[in-house]
Design a protein that fits this description.
By secondary structure, the protein is mostly beta strands. The protein folds into 2 domains: about 5-200, Jelly Rolls (Sandwich); about 215-330, Jelly Rolls. It has strands at about 5, 30, 40, 45-50, 60-65, 65-75, 80-90, 100-110, 115-120, 125-130, 140-150, 155-160, 165-170, 180-185, 195-200, 215-220, 220-225, 245, 250-255, 270-275, 285-290, 295, 305-310, 325-330. A 7-stranded antiparallel β-sheet has the order 3-4-15-6-11-12-13, with no helix packed on it. Strands 5-14-7-8-9-10 form a 6-stranded antiparallel β-sheet, with no helix packed on it. A 5-stranded antiparallel β-sheet has the order 16-19-24-21-22, with no helix packed on it. Strand 11 and strand 12 (about 155-160) form a beta hairpin. The chain is elongated, with a radius of gyration of 24 Å. The model is unreliable at about 1-45, about 90-95 and about 190 (pLDDT under 50).
Length: about 325
């Protein structure tokens, strides 16, 4: 059975028979287009089934900002059951896949957590899987599961089972806008899926923090003026009149960044940099270090341009001191 639950809109009867409410106000009613009973709690954003099990899809328009769908306390009873937390462009939200695009996480007993995306009505494509071992055999309780889209186009997914967290992050290009998000589930012979609540949030635009070069570590390149190197490449607005440059291959210049706080789990850290005036055959590599530990090296750059090295949560898992992050430039 497919169940659609959305915020009340004009012309639709609410679950309790009262007039529908088109606003996202805590305590207001929700409705469903199938005879399954849900209600919304007084704090807003939460759908709770009155019966023991949640079937089908719960859907809510999340708007255009940062979006997060959280499922609390769900039980997978048998190996043929699954839960899928999903966001898509379908204005109805009542079909698994539709025109537009979307993504979802798939949670199945004894199966590695998978993150999928699709466009049009095509078959979903796996874009990432958790690095942890396969999920436990059924039955098991999911204490928390979420799928989160950031305005950068990054999708984070996480499932916690018996104290163990399985996470996966992927980049899906431009973020979805005007999406509906929901929970799809499948019954099985062992007793279906029990779910206590699903929370759908529009968290607003994320707050970005920046760490810029703050001191010099290695200074084999040449400054365009003065003696300090970091001060020439730490502008808020790029100034191509101030720069550092290499005069030969295999020269290293390394700067230390200002102190950073530990990023939120699943967050991607972006390293933005500019390269210009490369001699014929010359190139540059840029790397992120934590002290002497290499975290990630970007693609070797052979042309003038503005570049971004995306450092995913998997990449920065080995960072032990966010007050000792460094950027290293090497001429090739």
């Amino acid at each position: 059975m497919t169940v659609l639950v959305r915020q009340n809109t004009a012309g639709t009867t609410a679950l309790n028979g009262t007039a529908p409410d088109p606003t996202n106000t805590p305590g207001n009613n929700w409705y469903t287009n199938a005879p399954t009973y849900y209600y919304r709690n007084s704090t807003g954003g939460v759908l709770i089934p009155n019966s023991a099990y949640a079937y089908g899809v719960l859907s809510y328009n999340l708007g255009t900002a940062r979006q997060k769908v959280t499922l609390n306390s769900a039980v997978i009873q048998g190996s043929s059951a699954y839960i899928r937390l999903q966001a898509n462009m379908d204005a109805q939200g009542s079909y698994a896949f539709s025109s537009g695009s979307g993504y979802y996480i798939l949670i199945i007993a004894s199966t590695t957590l998978q993150l999928y995306s699709w466009s049009g009505s095509g078959t979903p494509t796996a874009i990432g899987s958790a690095s942890a071992a396969a999920l436990p055999a059924a039955p098991f309780t999911i204490t928390t599961a979420y799928i989160e889209q950031l305005t950068s186009g990054t999708v984070n997914a996480s499932v916690t089972i018996s104290g163990t967290t399985y996470s996966v992050t992927a980049t899906v290009g431009s973020p979805l806008t005007g999406t509906y998000a929901g929970l799809y589930s499948s019954a099985d012979a062992a007793g279906n899926i029990a779910a206590s609540e699903i929370v759908m949030e529009d968290n607003g635009a994320p707050t970005y923090t920046y760490a810029r070069p703050a001191s010099d570590i290695t200074t084999q390149w040449t400054p365009s003026s003065g003696t300090s190197h970091y001060a020439l490449i730490n502008e808020v607005t790029p100034d191509d009149a101030n720069y550092i440059y290499a005069t030969a291959p295999s020269q290293t210049d390394e700067v230390k960044l200002g102190s950073m706080t530990t990023p939120t789990a699943g967050t991607t850290v972006n390293i933005n940099y500019r390269i210009s005036s490369l001699s014929a055959g010359a190139s540059v590599t840029v790397s992120l270090y934590c002290g002497a530990t290499l975290i990630k090296t970007d693609t070797n750059r052979t042309a003038t341009g503005t570049y971004t090295m995306a450092v995913t949560s998997t990449d920065w898992a080995s960072v032990t001191d966010w007050t000792n992050m460094r950027i290293r430039f090497v001429s090739v």
